[in-house]
């Protein structure tokens, strides 16, 4: 069975080798049909303590490491990427 991969924002990096990642998803309300946001926090393993609060990361499901940690951080998602320069002839 493939491992689940989620993308979210790090809200805390205070624990040793642990980050807390807030993952938001959008769902349609069953009765009213309005799109609403649902969020959940996941504790993820960060072996080298290299990720800081405010970064967007991708996390992957793993075998449990502790009571709360069943995810590990795979990579940083570059949300502030600048597009390549495009020269426009005027």
Task: Write a structural description.
This is Small ribosomal subunit protein uS17. One of the primary rRNA binding proteins, it binds specifically to the 5'-end of 16S ribosomal RNA. One of its GO terms (molecular function) is structural constituent of ribosome. Belongs to the universal ribosomal protein uS17 family. Keywords: Ribonucleoprotein, Ribosomal protein, RNA-binding, rRNA-binding. It is globular, with a radius of gyration of 17 Å. It has 90 residues and is mainly beta. The chain starts with a strand and ends in a 14-residue tail after the last strand. It has strands spanning 5-12, 18-28, 35-45, 56-61, 69-76. A hairpin with a 6-residue loop joins strand 2 (18-28) and strand 3 (35-45). It has one domain (3-74): Beta Barrel (OB fold (Dihydrolipoamide Acetyltransferase, E2P)).
Give the tags:
mainly beta, 5-stranded mixed beta barrel, 90 residues, OB fold (Dihydrolipoamide Acetyltransferase, E2P)
Order of helical and strand elements: EEEEE
Instruction: Count every beta strand, where a strand is a DSSP E run of 2 or more residues.
Output: 5
Q: Strand order across the biggest sheet?
A: 1-2-3-5-4
Look at the structure and give the mean pLDDT: 91
CATH third-level topology: OB fold (Dihydrolipoamide Acetyltransferase, E2P)
Radius of gyration: 17 Å
CATH class: Mainly Beta
First and last CA, distance: 54 Å
Uncertain runs are none
CATH superfamily: Nucleic acid-binding proteins
- The rough form would be described as globular
Q: How much of the sequence is in beta strands?
A: over 45%
Count of discrete alpha- or pi-helical segments spanning 4 or more residues? 0
Subunit structure: Part of the 30S ribosomal subunit.
Function: One of the primary rRNA binding proteins, it binds specifically to the 5'-end of 16S ribosomal RNA.
Keywords: Ribonucleoprotein, Ribosomal protein, RNA-binding, rRNA-binding
Family: Belongs to the universal ribosomal protein uS17 family.
């Amino acid at each position: 069975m493939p491992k689940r991969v989620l993308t979210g924002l790090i809200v805390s990096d205070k624990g040793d080798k642990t980050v807390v990642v807030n993952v938001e998803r959008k769902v349609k309300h069953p009765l009213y049909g309005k799109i609403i946001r649902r969020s959940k926090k996941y504790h993820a393993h960060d072996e080298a303590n290299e990720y800081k609060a405010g970064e967007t990361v991708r996390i992957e499901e793993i075998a449990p490491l502790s009571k709360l940690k069943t995810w590990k951080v795979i990579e940083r998602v570059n949300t502030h990427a600048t597009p390549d320069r495009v020269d426009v002839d005027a």
